[in-house]
Amino acid sequence: MSRLIVPVLLLLLAVGTPVASAEAERGLDYNLVRLDAEAVAEVPNDQMRVLLAVEHDSRDAGALPALVNTDMRWALDIAKKHPKVRAQTGEYNTQPEYASTRIVGWRAIQQLQLEGEDFGEVTALVTELQQKLQVRSMEFMPTRETRKRVENELTTEALKA
After folding, report:
1. pLDDT in tens, the chain (161 residues)
2. Among 6, 81, 110, 133, which residue has the fewest nearby CB atoms (within 10 Å)?
3. In degrees, to the nearest 5, what angle opens at C-alpha 22 toward C-alphas 19 and 23?
4. Contact indicator for 103, 74 with CB cutoff of 8 Å
5. What φ, ψ does residue 56 adopt, rounded to 5°?
6. d(Cα 137, Cα 148) in Å, to the nearest integer?
7. Is the separation of the CB atoms in 52 and 129 below 8 Å?
8. Contact, 95 vs 48, CB < 8 A?
């Protein structure tokens, strides 16, 4: 669960705006009324995000893209069988491997991000993909829709207060 706090600050001016703002600048705020309210709620984490990666090593840097692309294509084909899970490829990185000061090989890594609200479906897909990919991170968060809905509810609650 995530905590969401929505503060609402309302300024009501009893006198015309130019006069009130000039007095506020001088520190005279007797014509200014300040209201402050806050609403807090626990927000359910209804979305799961998992970052996986495929990784290959080779002495030949030119051979790496084909190896990585083959495994990523395999992963994306499996992900298509899980329509409740959104899959998106991410960062691709190639880096040298050294022995002393000499390059002896290359490593290539490509990321795959999965997102979904059906935790069971995301978990099943991750389990299947772990045949060739490694889990790098997993996090839970509110969906954008849930966050917006709770923000609107809390704003209304704070305004009533």
Report:
1. 666 655 544 444 444 445 455 555 666 667 777 777 787 888 889 999 999 999 999 999 999 999 999 999 999 999 999 999 999 999 999 999 999 999 999 999 999 999 999 999 999 999 999 999 999 999 999 999 988 888 888 888 877 77
2. 81
3. 85
4. no
5. -135, 150
6. 25
7. yes
8. no
